[in-house]
């Protein structure tokens, strides 16, 4: 008996793949794209490859569910036409387009960098203006302070710094405050410190001004003394060919690492404490022990050398010409006497070398030269012979001169006891001798 429906059979297609027969079966529910994908998979081509189907006599066959079936003896050949990849034309077009895109991106980057540079420049210029205005303000304040000092009528010092009737001011042979600051700034640049520590020059100016502003107006330990010590260290570094290894706006070490800053700070503390005369013998003896086998690669040896050098500079006034050195002695003694006078008034013990009733200029300087300055500079000369003529010779000459003055003082005292009427004559002779030696 028959029925209205017939049994469905899948369609079989035979393909010739390089001489090998491959059978492909698909149902009537497959669309053309599905069948193409099956043929591509069967022939080992990518699924998105465009192919054509040929009979044994090279006739093209439509690829769809109604395509005619074939047999093993009449297989179809699969010929790839194109893949889903880009054609040569498209590839060429894109390859030409991408460089343009990259060039646009490069141009954008270049423009952005240029804008950033301009913005930075504007910012720096703005900061420079601010810094300049700050420096102008600082200089103005400094000038006002100097003007205020010039109007003071009383000075705790025995000799006023601005008393035109005294020879103290011109004989100190130290530049004015603005010139001192400029000289200090030059020293930092000349020694390479600004470059080595990447110090902002404006910050250096501020730092020097800040140091100046925080110094007390003592007769001796004032900013002029600070300048003289720095100048002497600069001279020793230059003479001996030595190598130099707060407030945010005044921090000249802002561009060094935290570890470097710790080392610098510790070094500064060590050198400041080395200027304490209570440690003089200890430091000098330690340096003498290292002299015979001094090793620049030994950190302890180098630290000891730096301590001795800062000590030399701190008390180096007698190295300078007599007309420069002697006013400093007057200022130092006056500072000592001011301290001892107050200690006496408060019932405190007084150091003998600070007592105005027991100390004279010659006696104070002879002992200081013979037992402190000369031995220390003689020791330094063993390591740096250049120091002998420039610094040690002036110390010997200064010692000899004060010994002559002491002899005159002693002779005057003896004469005043024996022949009181000759006291004024001796006093005049001594003043004449001092004046003659100064000229």
From TrEMBL:
User: Could you give a GO molecular-function term held by this entry?
Assistant: metal ion binding
Q: Which organism is it from?
A: Terrapene triunguis
Q: GO terms for biological process?
A: signal transduction
Tell me yes or no: is Transmembrane among this UniProt entry's keywords.
no
Task: Kindly provide the name given to this protein in its UniProt entry.
Answer: PDEase domain-containing protein
Q: Determine if Metal-binding is one of this entry's keywords.
A: yes
Question: Where on the tree of life does the source sit, at the highest rank?
Answer: Eukaryota
Gene3D superfamilies (alphabetical) = 3'5'-cyclic nucleotide phosphodiesterase, catalytic domain
UniProt keyword annotations, A-Z:
Hydrolase, Metal-binding
């Amino acid at each position: 008996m028959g029925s209205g429906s017939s049994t469905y059979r899948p369609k079989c297609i035979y393909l010739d793949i390089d001489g090998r027969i491959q059978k492909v079966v698909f149902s009537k529910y497959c669309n053309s794209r599905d069948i193409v994908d099956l043929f591509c998979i069967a022939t080992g081509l990518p699924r998105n490859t465009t192919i054509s189907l040929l009979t044994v006599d090279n006739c093209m066959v439509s690829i769809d569910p109604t395509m005619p079936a074939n047999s093993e003896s009449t297989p179809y050949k699969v010929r790839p036409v194109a893949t889903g990849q880009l054609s040569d034309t498209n590839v060429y077009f894109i390859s030409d387009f991408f460089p343009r895109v990259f060039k646009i991106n490069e141009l954008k980057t270049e423009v952005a960098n240029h804008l950033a540079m301009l913005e930075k420049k504007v910012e720096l210029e703005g900061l420079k203006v601010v810094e300049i205005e700050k420096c102008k303000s600082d200089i103005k304040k400094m000038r006002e302070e100097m003007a205020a000092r010039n109007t003071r009528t009383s000075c705790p010092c025995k000799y006023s710094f601005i008393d035109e009737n005294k020879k103290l001011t011109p004989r100190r042979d130290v530049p004015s405050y603005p010139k001192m600051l400029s000289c200090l700034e030059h020293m930092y640049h000349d020694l390479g410190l600004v470059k080595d520590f990447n110090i902002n020059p404006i910050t250096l100016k501020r730092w020097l001004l800040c140091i100046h502003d925080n110094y007390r107006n003592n007769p001796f330990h004032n900013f002029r003394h600070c300048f003289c010590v720095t100048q002497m260290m600069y001279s020793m570094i230059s003479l001996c060919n030595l190598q130099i290894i707060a407030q945010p706006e005044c921090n000249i070490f802002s561009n060094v690492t935290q570890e470097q800053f710790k080392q610098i700070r510790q070094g500064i503390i060590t050198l400041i404490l080395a200027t304490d005369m209570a440690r003089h013998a200890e430091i000098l003896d330690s340096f003498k022990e290292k002299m015979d086998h001094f090793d620049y690669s030994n950190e302890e040896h180098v630290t000891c050398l730096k301590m001795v050098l800062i000590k030399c500079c701190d008390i180096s006034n007698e190295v300078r010409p007599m007309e420069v050195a002697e006013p400093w002695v007057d200022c130092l003694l006056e500072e000592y006497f001011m301290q001892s006078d107050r200690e006496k008034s408060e019932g405190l013990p007084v150091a003998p070398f600070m007592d105005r009733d027991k100390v004279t200029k010659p006696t104070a300087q002879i002992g200081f030269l013979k037992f402190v300055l000369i031995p220390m500079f003689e020791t330094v000369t063993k390591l740096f012979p250049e120091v002998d003529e420039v610094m040690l010779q002036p110390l010997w000459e200064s010692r000899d001169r004060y010994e002559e003055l002491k002899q005159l003082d002693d002779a005057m005292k003896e004469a005043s006891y024996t022949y009181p009427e000759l006291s004024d004559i001796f006093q005049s002779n001594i003043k004449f001798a001092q004046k003659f030696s100064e000229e």
